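Notes from hallway chat w/ T.B., transcribed later so I don't forget. T.B. wanted the structure written out for a chain they're using in a teaching module, and asked if we could keep both sequence and structure tokens in one place. Agreed to drop them here.
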Amino acid sequence: MPSYILRVECPDAKGLVYRITQVIYQHGLNMVSNGEFVDRKGSRFFLRAELEGECDAETVTGELREALSAEARIELGVSRTKDIVVLATREAHCLGDLLLRHTAGEFNARVQAVVSNREDLGDLVRRFDIPFHCVPHEDVERGDHEKQVLEVVQDYPCDYVVLAKYMRILSSSFVAPFHGRMVNIHHSFLPAFVGANPYGQAFQRGVKIIGATAHFVTDDLDEGPIIAQNVFPVDHTHSAADMAQAGRDVEKTVLARALKLVFEERVFISGNRTVIFD
């Protein structure tokens, strides 16, 4: 029996759940899970539901729109495996963890390819029988390099682009086609400790928490809507190397958590915030 995911965002009003479930019932669909949230400040209603049954998704979507409002954002589609392309540079921890989880079937996604500006991770990727493309950036203008990377990405089916420690600043023209479809991971020291050695700086300051943030990529660099975060406590006994290892560990788990939520369509972008149905 086909499985569908229904996502609704609209102005809040009385009777929304009744109107939605009435349409679902009339089409003989069974609701196997459901989550709702009202943003009272913004007066917005959010719903994510998993449905089973046979239906014409276009017809159901049209009837839901009539039952709600012209402003409603409605997505109804068959639950399916997502296709992703990963961008990486030299650091292997996030990419390696992603590839292992992908091989183990933990993600509702297929890794179509890995693209890097360096050759360092090629052997790792090829062990998983996944295409690896090196697009060097040395002596190449940023715009030209991004064009070359984009040409490789566009050779593959791609629902999402994942930046697994991709150490290149992306232009707005590169990011724009992937609005809401590009996920990044970074340490949570920003903006306090910038540069190539954030953990050394953190050690010198005696920080007590190591953290990581996964977010959607926007023109504002590391300020896009946050999907997942976590922290790991440290103290005076941790060296800078210990802190860096703790950082790598928490980055892996936070990225994996964020990707699972995104691939299962549990994340709504609302302005520069997210609404997540866990």
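Follow-up for T.B.: DSSP finds eight helices and 13 strands in the chain. Might be a good example for the class.
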